[in-house]
Specification:
alpha/beta; six-stranded mixed β-sheet; five-stranded antiparallel β-sheet; 12 helices; globular
Length: 340
């Protein structure tokens, strides 16, 4: 059974209207679909038009052409109130709401329901408390927003969007100001909301690693070429990541899902325990070597344990290294002798 898109664009053209009737097109011919219960990550280099696309989907700036449908209805048919009941928006800018409490900030998400005077009924208060609990920020409810860390403030902004009870949440760089732990917590939270509450979540990000780990669908955006859309795994194995993110001196490594400097060295085979092999490969890449499948005629490493790394040389000789540090020193020394 085919799932119906929550957001769908048809031949969408995004950009800006300039003075004198001129237009600056950022991207055109966009046919995109977003589904409930999924986190979609929008990836692209600076200037690719990620924020322009999000602002257009939010209705903050008009499209230059094409159509955006929200829940099967043209975006242009939505009133401001109906849009607020459907879409929650979390922008990248740090909120300036430092003079109010977290509870008061999240309560603003009930504004589409409370009318002009903004009086909270018991049902509204229950929803605010549930939103605080869902984002793990309830213990800070009576703190001022100015007292929060960047990660806590982002959780409060997501709680505000949750309090709107809208099926769609759009976020512009939600992890931009966060440390590593807070970035992971935020992405885990968003994925949990998509799965458990059936939310449709679209976010722009520069965090390639987290997008690959947590995104159900990725949109790869670059000026002057069609967008590539699909699961992270399909995009990696089809070569789309290498095509979009590989630049001179930089390559996307499909075996690790990371961008690395291009290295002209001969490959070094790695096999054995999964975790040990992964981190040995990580050390090789960092030091300018290229991990690969094991083959005859090259240096191969059998990662039996973290304390037993067996090197096999092209002539068949073997040597057991006690740790990764010793292994890398041996490979560097061997490589230096080879180049002399």
């Amino acid at each position: 059974m085919m799932q119906t898109p929550v957001i769908e664009t048809n031949n969408l053209c995004i950009g800006y209207r300039l003075k004198g009737g001129k237009r600056k097109t950022v991207h055109e011919g966009l046919n995109l679909r977003l589904f409930s219960g999924e986190v979609t990550c929008l990836l692209g280099l600076n200037g690719a038009g990620k924020s322009t696309l999000l602002r257009t989907l939010c209705g903050f700036q008009p499209p230059l052409g094409g159509e955006i449908c929200l829940m099967g209805k043209p975006l242009s048919d939505y009133s401001q109130v109906n849009f607020s009941l459907t879409v929650g928006v979390v922008l990248t800018e740090k909120t300036n709401a430092g003079g109010i409490t977290v509870y008061e900030l999240v309560s603003l998400g009930r504004h589409p329901y409370t009318g002009f005077f903004g009086q909270l009924k018991q049902q509204d208060r229950d929803i605010v408390e549930q939103s605080l609990e869902a984002t793990g920020i309830a213990h800070k409810a009576h703190n001022y927003v100015s007292e929060l860390s960047d990660g806590e403030r982002q959780k409060a902004m997501i709680a505000k969007a949750l309090a709107q009870q809208c099926p769609i949440i759009l976020l512009d760089e939600p992890t931009a100001f966060l440390d590593v732990t807070s970035r992971i917590e935020t992405m885990v939270l968003l994925h949990k909301l998509a799965v458990e509450q059936g939310k449709t979540i679209l976010l722009s990000t520069h965090d390639l690693d987290l997008a690959i780990q947590m995104g159900d669908c990725l949109w790869l955006q670059e000026k002057g070429r069609p967008m590539a859309c699909g699961t992270p795994e399909d995009l990696i194995m089809s070569g789309a990541f290498e095509s979009f993110f590989g630049k001179e001196g930089i390559v996307f490594d499909p075996s690790t899902g990371k961008l690395n400097t291009e290295t002209p060295t001969s490959p070094i085979g790695v096999e054995g325990d999964f975790i040990v092999s992964y981190w040995v490969g990580n050390a090789l890449i960092r030091n300018g070597f290229r991990p690969s499948p094991v083959k005859d005629g090259q240096v191969n490493i059998n990662c039996q344990t973290a304390r037993q790394l067996e090197m096999t040389f092209p002539d068949g000789q073997t040597k057991v290294m006690p740790d990764v540090s010793a292994l890398i020193k041996e490979i560097k020394c061997m490589n230096k002798q080879k180049n002399e």
